[in-house]
Design a protein that fits this description.
This protein has 406 residues and is mainly alpha-helical. The protein contains 18 helices and three strands. Strands 2-1-3 form a three-stranded antiparallel sheet.
Length: 406
């Protein structure tokens, strides 16, 4: 009879580890449940060692993702909401966390909390994993004695943000596949099919149409100097990427995105949704408005809009409120400014900010749908034109050859 290694938790949250003999894994689970334990992991010893080895290997290349942090927050809010102490909840999550790097971070946070540090201070030691937004919301929750509620709001915030990222990513899957498929077909035509025709045409010695000569020259260039083209493209990409990573380059790039008609509206809506959701979540969690503005400035992706928050900060600090300084900047749509004005007048600024975020999240989804709906036929049209040009050029050459006098 095989022996299974199990990990379980009792009703008080205490972890229990051991070995149990059983014919099947489900029998071990049933036995643990009948004893009042909550099964966490049940594996054969060989499976447990293999899983540990795989986890150690892949953790060398894997970083803590936003989904990992979201899952950690959801689980922590559930455990704390069930009445378990924070340190006990963190101890359980050390075992539950699959990401090796996040597991190490949770262990360090657990040790710091057990050593007398506040939860927020323990999280702040790991800025690559937990953002300023995360740390300050937890700090506000600890100060107000509402950590459980703050964790629930944080989980909701992270889940909403992740859903938007996943939606945009999934919406772009088909266009990307379309580009790859079309690009692959054109590459095959240019590197394998057209050179065959080039050999035939060269043997005939007939003067070919201009479009055919251009196509043959382009095909020959790609075939003979593909490595140089890749190097040049790589250098151009590296140069642009390096420049954009500089302060001045990032500022100009973000400013350009706000001027391009195609993406201007979408960028505005995304940033307004991010700004208002973060501000609303922070204010609802008890973070002072000036501190919230300082945090949001680091979160807003577009540096032009982020820099404008300095003026908004000074306006709020001077007693103008938030809506009035926002009107000075054209980055924020009039609807958002009016809704924020109503929120300030009614004393429900946090609630109104979250409503603005919901409104613009819906607008972003609709804008992405429209963008993808326009992008797909546009790409098909472009690829059709390219393939059509290739086919017509070849046909013109064939017709010209047929007209040769014999």
């Amino acid at each position: 009879m095989p022996e299974y290694v199990y990990k379980a938790a009792d009703p008080m949250g205490k972890l229990v580890e051991g070995v149990m003999e059983a014919n099947e894994e489900r029998l071990v689970i049933s036995q643990l449940q009948s004893q009042g334990f909550i099964p966490i992991s049940v594996k054969l010893p060989t499976q447990a060692r293999r899983f540990s080895l795989q986890l150690s290997t892949f953790s060398l290349f894997k970083k803590v993702s936003n989904k990992d942090v979201m899952t950690f927050t959801q689980q922590l809010s559930t455990l704390v909401g069930a009445g378990l102490p924070l340190d006990r909840s963190l101890y359980i999550l050390i075992e539950l966390t699959e990401s090796r790097e996040l597991k190490t971070i949770v262990e360090n946070v657990y040790k710091a909390v057990r050593g007398g540090s506040s939860f927020a201070d323990a999280l702040a030691k790991h800025p690559r994993c937990f953002s300023k937004l995360y740390v300050n919301m937890v700090r506000a929750g600890e100060a107000g004695g509402v950590l459980e509620l703050i964790l629930v709001r944080l989980a909701e915030f992270l889940e909403t943000s992740q859903e938007m990222k996943d939606y945009i990513t999934s919406a772009m899957v088909y266009p990307i596949l379309l580009v790859l498929a079309g690009g692959g077909a054109i590459t095959i035509l240019m590197t394998f099919v057209i050179p065959k025709f080039a050999m035939i045409f060269s043997d005939m010695g007939q003067t070919l149409p201009l479009s055919t000569r251009f196509l043959l020259a382009l095909s020959g260039g790609i075939r003979d100097y593909w490595w140089a083209i890749l190097v040049v493209c790589g250098l151009i990409y590296w140069g642009i990427k390096t420049y954009i990573n500089t302060t001045d380059g990032r500022l100009k790039w973000d400013g350009l995105k706000l001027k391009l008609v195609v993406v201007k509206t979408l960028v505005q809506k995304v940033e307004v949704a991010r700004f208002t959701r973060t501000m609303g979540t922070l204010l609802r969690s008890g973070v002072p408005i000036l501190a919230a503005l300082s945090i949001v400035k680091e979160i807003v992706g577009n540096r032009v809009i982020a820099n404008s928050l300095s003026g908004i900060y000074e306006g709020v600090k001077g007693g103008e409120g938030m809506a009035k300084p926002l009107k000075r900047y054209h980055f924020f749509p009039p609807l958002s400014v009016h809704m924020i004005t109503v929120g300030e007048e009614t004393g429900k600024l946090d609630e109104m900010l979250l409503k603005v975020a919901d409104t613009y999240d819906k607008d972003v989804r609709n804008a992405v749908k429209r963008f993808v709906a326009l992008l797909e036929p546009l790409m098909i049209l472009i690829m059709g034109v390219v393939v059509g040009f290739i086919v017509i050029s070849m046909l013109m050459a064939i017709f010209s050859v047929n007209e040769m006098p014999f």
